[in-house]
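Throughout our pipeline, every protein is held as a single compact record rather than as scattered files. Nothing more is needed to write down the fold, since each code stands for a local backbone conformation. For reference, a complete record is included directly beneath this paragraph.
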Amino acid sequence: MAVREAPAPTAAAHTHEMPARGRVQSSSARRRSRPDAITSLLLAVLLCLPLMPFGRIFSGETWRLQSVLTIAVLIGVGVLMRALRTGGLGALIGQVIIGLGSATLLTAPAQAFLFVIPTFDVFAHWDVLAGDAAEQIRQGVAPMPEDPTLSFLLVSAIALITVLADLIVITFRVPVAAVLIPLALALAPSAILPHGSDAVAIALIIVVGAALLYRSVQLRGGLRPGGVLGAGVVSVVIALVAAVIVAPLLPRGGNGSLNGFGLGSANRIDATLDLGEDLRRPNNTRMLTFTTDGGAVPYLRLTTMSQFTGSVWEPDEGERVDVDWLSQFPEVRDPAVETTTHQISVEVDGVDSTMLPLPPEPFDLTGLGAGWRADSDNRTVASEGTVINGLSYGASYTTAAPSLEQIRAASAQIGASTGLSAEDTPLLHQYATEVTAEAATDYDKLVALQSWFRSSEFSYSLDAPVEDGYDGSSAVAIEAFLTQRSGYCVHFAAAFTLMARDLGMQARIALGFLPGEATGTSVDDRVQYAVTSDQLHTWPEVYFAGIGWVAFEPTASLGVATRFLAATPTGSDPVEPSAPAPTSTATAQPERPDITEPTDTSTAGSSPSVDLGRYLAILGWIALAVAVALTPLTVRTVLRARRMTAARAGDAAAAWAELQADAADHGLRADDSNTPREFVDRIVTATGAPREELDLLRAAIERVSYGREDAGVADGEALAGAVADVHRIWQETADPHVRRRARFLPVSLLPRRDAPTP
């Protein structure tokens, strides 16, 4: 009895896993492979959970509500498009269209076509918004106040992550990524805040993620052993991509103290004087420039440290007052002490700090907004959250110039002590006594200590402390430094301060910058100085009654030693000036072979600077557009590779599915009424392909579809070779336009509308 040939299996029927033992895939299996709305719902919940810990970085609720709505809408669009049988590609296109349209309507409807279609003007507006938001983040400190431009950047990032997560989890069916992506996002805040992560959010992510994984396994009828490793690798990659997207959106952690101070985009300076790693950093970068109206080039101070625990120095935290207090209550000193007033203008371009670099005794600050406060004890100025990078400001400052007679007559004996016993630091007590034995006054004792440290007995080194194990400012490290006689500014300043306290004087350590070096450029007839990262510095300050805090410079080969002129010079009085006049090099630096001095490019005739951020933003939009445009090509390539691999293993159904998909991409779709023989005839007629190879494919698919369970496995290499030969013939004979469409817009990815509902 003649048996009519059955219709050719469609491409959609063999896109997923092929049935075991050659049996035709059942309708229940096909239902399990279809996208599931519950899976999408669980994914949406997972993506919303990381918003909980991010509330510790970005204040307000508006951006969080917008993010939740964005996630809901984009995931909902994906569910709807898949319900309409447009597949993963249709879902991706729908999400991109809805996302761009919504962003256009909310941010720039006036510049758009029909209010929702973005134009070049809309993209330019988005570039400005993103740049403004990035600048706020660069200068801000967590938690940041809510702002519309900041919300735009955050919600845009959430939208991009949502589309990527939906593509990976729902379309490519890698459910492990559904857990790793939100988990990476939830842990990101802990990178900048000591307690930035949220244990509740992380626990909920694990619970909901477990439910999603269970749902996926249930729908699939079990995990494919061969795909577990690949799914894990892809998931880790996606989690890293999510972290890369979010990382630039995180401001620095800070609380208005020196903990918000750092170098570059990732490094910080410890307020406990752990400067060794910062000073040993191989890249020397410009941090700020300043001009002053004459006189000595000042050291720029960030904070002071008076409390010593024996192991660390702690920054002073006095009463915070309004910055106008500095003008209303100047330093109290003897009216007979001569003082002068100068002006300074500072431009910061490489310091992530909440504290202003200022000379001692500043007042009349300009260029600052709200939120800046002064410390009434040390007269330093800090913000309540704003980072100074990019800030331009000015100030007046007072310098005291007591005569030699005045400072020798002033007492520094304010009853301070080291807090350490002679048994704890025997060398420190011994040298403090021996070096100052012949000095008659407190000032002379300090000058003796300063001269001793700056003598040939000591050397400046960044390596010796590390090699000998005393890289720090603890009492043990200072004792070792006094033995080795080699170290950097922290060791010199800490040893000097402790020895001054051992002599009963009130002393503290200041942290800031050396005066820098002249750039050769003048601004408003003032010499401009540049301060670089290798000029981070600490120095001691001692309090003299009637004069105030006086800075000393004990670090060998750095800065200028403190000396004061006599009112009436005599043969026995020192004749050095109290500080050097501005020269081309304001401070002598130790030889640093590991650091190359930066070339000054801030001359008057220099070319305009390039706005790198704007170009990067444009490149980002271009990259996104290219990625979206190449998505069909990428998906089609992956599917083809999977089918060809299966075909080489003897899977006739996979080979036949790829043959049908290739024909559809080149304009020849299989009809449900066609038998395999009729479909082969159509291909031969359209391309002139060899019938022998096509008959091999036809016979193989007929055996698999209607053969016995013990039917032999087809010759995989022959099957794959036949499919490859037909593909080559399509490429050689098809019109160039058809070839381009088949490559970049393959219609085989779209669902067949005439396919029966399973």
Q: What stands out?
A: DSSP finds 24 helices and 21 strands in the chain. Residues 227 and 273 are 52 Å apart (CA to CA). The mean pLDDT is 74. Residues 612-648 form the longest helix (37 residues).
